[in-house]
Amino acid sequence: MRIVILLTAALSLAAAVPDRRIVNGNEATPGQFPYHALLYTDWTNGMTMACGGAVISANYVMTAAHCLQPSTGGIVILGAHNRLDEAEPSQQRFTFSAEDMTYHPGFTFTHIRNNIGVVRIRAGIQLNDRVQPVRLPARSDGRTFAGLMGTVTGFGGTSDEHNELSPVLRYALNPILTNADCLEAADNNVNLIQDQNICQSGANGRGSCNNDSGGPLTVMHEGTSMQVGIVSFGSTVCKDGTPTGYTRVSYFLDWIEENTDVVIDP
Fold first, then answer.
1. What percent of the chain is modeled with pLDDT above 90?
2. Fold classified for 148-250
3. Residues 6+ apart with CB under 8 A from 234
4. Which of 90, 206, 235, 256 has the fewest other C-beta atoms within 10 Å?
């Protein structure tokens, strides 16, 4: 399996660099995923990167570290169904600077380790029925989530044939895999698939791809969506059925609590 990590619609994919866009999925209904965030980050090389994220409190959005490094700031869009419609009443748009970004100090593009970051929204997010924080796992939740149906959301492109973002929010469902099964699909690359990762099946060509990086992977728990993964890396061919690799949220609960105002449930 050739692994890539997502850069921007304008950047080419390279070996061993981060991910992704929703392929063979469905258009979301307005407000279906009120935690989803869209980030446009400005890089030091003058490029702009589109990424996903998730609202985790009234002051923070969580995303992938590779969406923030090396970035000088950007824009977060919340409550959007059609990202191009700035007049959409549900949308909230915020600018952020480098000072508002925090990513894991152990993040590295080599084997894509510790791929997690957060953005502080200084103005504060107005929570309503279209913008809500996603639930995070409790410390006592020791499940791997393997076998559960996972949902990934994003505005990334919808085809391997072009690199254009989707104007509307889309989602795809596929089962979460055991790490053993994911390792097998990754040619037993133990440097890539570790305890800090969680994988989703790419069956029927469904899943994330370019510019879905940083977006949330959720499962249903007690009737609500709970985020268990952050889109991190995957195959260069988005609909080839290869599993997608995610940052495992439960592995980083201490880091999340230390770097945001989120209080993790016991």
1. 71
2. Thrombin, subunit H (2.40.10)
3. 3, 4, 19, 20, 202, 207, 208, 209, 242, 243, 244, 245
4. 90
Query: Cβ distance 230 to 214 under 8 Å?
Result: yes
Closest CA to 167 of 56, 1, 38: 38
CA distances from 163 to 203, 230, 262 (A): 21, 21, 35
Please report, as a single letter, which amino acid is at residue 130: R
Confidence of residue 159 (pLDDT cuts 50, 70, 90): low
**Assigned superfamily of 34-132+253-258:** Trypsin-like serine proteases (2.40.10.10)
Rounded Cα distance between 198 and 150, Å, is 11
DSSP letter assigned to residue 88? -
CB burial class (10 A; 0-12, 13-18, 19+) of residue 127? middle
> Of 10 and 129, which is predicted with more confidence?
129
Select the more confidently predicted residue: 211 or 64: 64
Three-state secondary-structure class, residue 112: helix
Q: Would the pLDDT of 229 be above 50? A: yes
Q: Where are the alpha helices (DSSP H) in 83-130?
A: none
Of 177, 170, 173, 167, the C-alpha closest to 86 is 167
The pLDDT value recorded for residue 7 is: 37
Who contacts 265 (Cβ-Cβ below 8 Å, separation ≥6)? 136, 138, 139, 140
66 SS3 class: helix
The H or E element that residue 175 is part of is strand 170-177
Q: How big is the CA angle at 28 (ends 219 and 182), to the nearest 5 degrees?
A: 40
In whole angstroms, what is the distance from residue 58 CA to residue 114 CA?
Answer: 24
Q: Is the pLDDT of residue 15 over 50?
A: no
